[in-house]
Each structure stands twice: as C-alpha cells, then as structure tokens.
Amino acid sequence: MWTQDSLQQLVRDQLSDYLFVVVSNREPYIHNHVNDKIECIVPASGLTVALDPVMRACGGTWVAHGSGTADREVVDARNRVLVPPDTQNYTLRRVWLTENEVDKYYFGFSNETLWPLCHIVYQRPEFNVDDWNTYKYVNRLFADAVLDEIGGRKAFVFIQDYHLTLLSRMLKAKNHRIISAQFWHIPWPNREAFRICPWQNEILYGLLGNDLLGFHIAYHRNNFLDTVDRTLECRIDYERFSVSHADHTTFVSPFPISVDFDRISENVQKPEVEQEMTALKKKYGLSNEIVGIGLDRIDYTKGIPERLKAVDLLLTRYPKYKKKLVFFQLAEPSRIKIKKYQDLNDEIDNLVEQINSKHQTTDWKPITYIKEHKSPVTLRAFNRMARFCIVSSLHDGMNLVAKEFVSSRVDETGVLILSRFAGAARELDEALLINPYAVDEIAETIYTAIEMPVELQKKRMLRLRHKVCENNIYRWAADIITELVKIESI
Ligand code: ADQ
C-alpha cells in the first residue's frame, strides 16, 4: 500500500540527485483579493487536487500560471511563494501572462481547440493560427521559468496536460540533464478525430520529446500510439509500448490517477464536517429526504443537462418521490469567456427553473442548484449526506468526483452512478454504470440506486473503497517515478 511516507522514501532513494519540478497551467493555490483581505483558494481542478498531495510528499517546485488577483502581492522577487499556506511543503513559482496571451493560449488553443478535439462530445474544435502561435510562445515562457528554476542541475520535470505539449523539447534543447514525463489528464481520441488538427505533427513531435508519457487508461494510450503510427515516421514497439522517433525513445503507459483516500476518509469525520452537515440540513430544511448530488466544473463534457433531465423523468415516472427527493447540483463556473460555456450556463439555469416549476410544491423543490466554488469542508459534507452521487460525463479522462465520493463514504453506504465513458468506469465497475446520453437509462438507474437495500449498497461500496484505497494517488505517483527510474537505467 502506497502512502505519503513511502512515496517520500521512494523519492529520497531514487531521485535524491534530481530537483523535482511539476509544471502545469493551473496553479494549486490561488490568492485573490476578497473585500479588503487576501484569500487563498484551492481551484476546482482535478489535476491540482490530485497533484497537491504528491508535492506535499515530494517537496520541490511547482511552476504554474499565476492567475489570482492577489498572486503578485504574495510572491518574492523570483515570483515564488511557499505552499500550502499552513504547512509550506513546496515552492510555487508563478508565470505571468498578459490577458491577450491567456485569451489565445488558454481560452483559445487549449480550450477551444485541444479540449473539444480530445473529448468526443460533438463540439466542433476551432482552429485559429493566431491562437496556435500564442500557444507556442506561452510554452516558451513556461520553459524559460522552468529552466531558470533548474539552473544547470539534474532535474525530473513532470509536465501536466494539454496546455504544454511543446515544453519537453524546449527544455531538453537547453539542458540535456533533464528527464521529463508528461501526464495527459484528458482522453486521447481515435486517430480519425485527431487528424483534423492542422498542427497534429508539431503536437505529436512535441509530446515525443518526453521520456515517459502517461494516460489514464490503456484505451487512450492505444489511441495515441495509433495516431502517432499514422502520422509520423517512427518505430513503435508494441511489446514495450515505446515510440522511437528521430534519435529519441518515449515510453507510453497507462497510470490511472486517483485521490488521497486516507486523507479524505479522515477529513470527512472531522467535527467541522459534522457541523457543516448540520448547518446544511438546517439551511435547506432537510429531515429524512433522499439526497442526491452532482458536483462538477460547469463543462459541456460533464453531462449536467442530461442528469437534470433524468431527475425530471424520474419524478414524472415515479411521482412517489415528490417531496421526498432533493437533488443538489453543485457546480463551479468555468471558462466562462468561451461562448459555448456561456450557452451551457444558460441551458442549465433554464432547465433547473423549468424542472422545478413543473414539480415543486409550496415547501419543496426537486433541484437545488448551487452555482459557486465551495470549500472542501462543504463538498465533504454533501458527499456524506448523499444517498447517491451521479457522475454522467459524456467523455472524461478519469473523473475524480467519483473517487472522492467513494473515499468520503466511511459509513460504507451510498450508491455511485457512473458514466461508462469516464476513465473511472474501468476501475469502479461496482458502481451503477450508465450511458450518459440515455436519459431514460439514467432515470431508471436513479430509481435502482434509491431502492437499493442497505446490505447491497454496503457490499458494492466496500469493494469500491477497497479499490480506491489501494490505487490511491501515492500509488499513481510512485508508479510513474518507478517507471521513469527504470527507463533511466535502460
Ligand atoms: P476536471 O475536468 O477538472 O479534471 P474532475 O476529475 O472531475 O475534473 O475534478 C474536478 C474537481 O473539482 C474535483 O476535485 C471536485 O471535487 C472539484 N469541484 C467540483 N465542483 C466544485 C465546486 N463547486 N467547488 C469546488 N470544487 C469543486 C481533469 C480531467 C479529469 C481527470 C482530472 C485529473 O478532465 O478526467 O480526472 O483532470 O486527472
């Protein structure tokens, strides 16, 4: 079983000569001005939520875009600040970007091109050459910051996600003592989907600058290898899952990401979570209602309208649940500068209003929509109060909400309803699996979840908890580090 301590030991034993550097677009802690104070928040991002415990264990430096309104005020002369605020285990080095750069590199190329390209949810990607040029330029800005942190030392650079596909080659061109791994947090689509990208060669070539490339599941790894095979002149070894291109070899493997099971299981039992549950019950007038939850960034990949329609259908088909069921949709607005996200926000607002006005009575409404960022304590409280949690992603790399729900269920009850098209479904097959496009199927599955006897809930939940406990976030990081060390010694 991997723990924070055993991961720390692994890093000490295997990487002691190396500086450990994580690079991502999103920063793990954001400082914002709130009224007259500076407040530090943890963003709603699966990537940062997963990697923070790894950095707490490993120490080192995390390089990321400084996006908070007060970020510049808390850094030193080299743009660094120690985080987490209470324990200060590692350094956060902030990279500054102009509004124009953020528009084109982040909202543009990353989220209007690569995001819809890799998620097959029938949203057409935009291909804009200006965005692409800015994306290249911003990758260079990140490379400069990372190289500055490393100096001439040996370093293990762990690059995150689709915002930084060109980084590894930029780093290695300047410092050959760098080893790099990159983890792709979203799905990799089939080659027919990827080949429409006018810059596919540059992106694939960029990613193959890494020594190790990780995906959540073997299916995404296989799609990637197939894409490379059809696009670049290269040699693929399907025994070792490696790609040799020019004079460099990249190993490509699945590493299913996870959460800090022990920490969540411990935190949900703290008095502040109990107090929050009491406060929430009072605020929303709950006594013996059946509570369902959905908990997401507002994104068109997460299938939020589909699940709300399923709640509507359930109540139409089984009116006995009227006044008995309350579904809480917690949702943090995300990428709101992009038109498709604005439209989705409007669609959800309208749906909630329509469904509530169709079913509500004087003292009850079926859906409570909480559209804001919530603290971990509040999220844990909802996870504990829920009879069922719906994760209905139309396509998702992994989905940590599912694993957080399981980790929170210290009482071993509760039912997870999980999309077959989320990477998490490969592991968590004791959940009730759904096709998220089939509203009728979701509605019937909610019915099954509500009616499931406690003994059966426990049987399934125990198995789920066992899996998430064993395949925790420390194991994910340890597997990547172990693989990298193996590659280094080949
Ligand atoms: P995301 O698409 O960001 O991650 P996910 O894995 O579901 O998605 O994580 C979302 C995180 O945001 C969770 O930790 C959740 O608790 C939190 N959150 C949701 N709503 C919130 C709210 N209202 N307030 C505060 N926090 C909230 C990407 C990929 C995923 C992959 C992760 C990690 O899209 O497939 O699982 O990276 O690799």
How would you portray this structure in words?
By secondary structure, this protein is of the alpha/beta class. The chain folds into 2 domains: 4-258 and 473-489, Rossmann fold, CATH 3.40.50.2000; 261-470, Rossmann fold, CATH 3.40.50. It is 46% helix and 19% strand. The protein is built from 18 helices and 18 strands. The chain has helices spanning 4-14, 46-58, 71-74, 99-118, 129-150, 167-174, 191-194, 200-207, 218-231, 261-267, 271-283, 304-317, 339-359, 376-385, 400-408, 439-451, 454-470, 473-488, and strands spanning 19-23, 30-34, 37-41, 61-65, 80-83, 90-95, 155-160, 178-183, 212-215, 235-237, 242-245, 248-254, 290-297, 325-332, 367-370, 388-391, 415-419, 432-434. The protein has a 10-stranded mixed sheet, sandwiched between helices. A 6-stranded parallel sheet has the order 15-14-13-16-17-18, sandwiched between helices. Strands 2-3 form a two-stranded antiparallel sheet. A hairpin with a 4-residue loop joins strand 10 (235-237) and strand 11. Helix 11 (271-283) crosses helix 14 (376-385). The chain is globular. It starts with a helix and ends with a helix. The relative contact order is 0.11. The site of adenosine-5'-diphosphate-glucose has 25 residues, from helix 2, strand 13, strand 14 and helix 15.
